[in-house]
Amino acid sequence: MDGANATPANVSSSQNASDRDPRGDIPVVHWAIMTISLLGFVENGILLWFLCFRMRRNPFTVYITHLSIADISLLLCIFVLSVDYAFQMELASGSYTTLTLPVTFLFGHNAGLYLLTAISVERCLSVLCPIWYRCRRPKHQSACVCALLWALSCLATAMEYVKCIDRGELGPSRGDCRAVMVFVGVLSFLVFTPLMLLSSTVLVVKVRRSAWASHSSKLYLVITVTVVVFLICAVPMRLLYLLHYEYWAAFRKLHRISLLFSTINSSANPFIYFFVGSSRKKRFKESLKVVLTRAFKDDAQPGRQDKGGTAAATETVL
Question: CDD domains, per this entry (predicted)?
Answer without folding.
Answer: 7tmA_MrgprH
